[in-house]
Amino acid sequence: MATLGARITEAEPGRVVLELEAGPQHRHGGGVVQGGVITQIADAAMGMALATFQEDGLWNTTIELKINFIRPVISGRIRAVGRVVEMKKTLLFSEADVLDEQGRLVAKASSTCMPVPEGQGRE
Amino acid sequence: MSDVNAAPSRAWAWMGLQLVETGRGTATVDMTPTDDMANASGFVHGGIISTLADSAMGRSVHTLKPGVVRATSFDLKLNFINAAKIGESLRAIGKVVHAGRRTVVTECRVEDRNGKLVATASGTFAVKREKE
Questions:
Q1: Does B50 contact A at CB distance below 8 Å?
Q2: Cβ contacts (< 8 Å) between A66 and chain B: which residues?
């Protein structure tokens, strides 16, 4: 998260927003922000959204993730909005929208996570 | 043919899929799983739920303007969240997330008759559009 330059800008139960100022370090040879960067902020936003509903001392780790890249982004503030879909005992389901500075949909992700003791699966 | 209310296909008839409602970029499809659709645990088989979700998302693509002549899913992903019971109706609400010229990204929510979440899905379709 720190390496990437992303930060938490909103957090409420079941919903966490991360923001990233996209710069040349995030772009690949094609001149647009690399998919892995977008995936990472989406994954982090989803994991944190789930954590807001978990008991103290528990965190989660991603066991499955899918993403659709919908429009390219070159620069500006990218927002990943992570939301909880459903919390089960052993599986946690979440989704995220990644938006550009104009609020347009850049990517849509969903993930399944597994609860783990805090300290595991955490950056 | 881009009529969203077109006659159901053989598969739709066989599965008992019913188009309940369409809007711009949305479609709702209902079905009641029969005894033949049970998995080894006695609940509705995931493949049946996948077909239902794919069908609702496909219908939602056909509501777009300019009209869609053909929509073929080339990516389909589901999360099965709660088990569904045989004999209890299921509802799939398909929604277009992004409508491109050649590809359309959709999502879907499958609920039981009490509105409980059974599955979430996403699908990506290759489309052929009518000339504007």
A1: no
A2: 77, 122
What is the DSSP-derived secondary structure letter of residue B52?
A: H
Contact B81 A110 (CB under 8 A): no
Domain ranges (residues) in chain B: 10-129
Q: Which fold has domain A6-117?
A: Thiol Ester Dehydrase; Chain A (3.10.129)
What's the topology of domain B10-129?
Thiol Ester Dehydrase; Chain A (3.10.129)
Domain boundaries, chain A: 6-117
List the single best residue of A50, A84, A110 to mutate versus B (max B Cβ within 10 A).
A110
Q: Model's pTM, two decimal places?
A: 0.88
Which pLDDT tens digit goes with each residue over A35-83?
999 999 999 999 999 999 999 999 999 999 999 999 999 999 999 999 9
Q: How far apart are CA A100 and CA A76, in angstroms?
A: 7
ipTM, interface predicted TM-score of the complex: 0.80
Q: How far is CA A115 from CA A63, A89, B2, B60, B101, in A?
A: 10, 8, 46, 35, 40
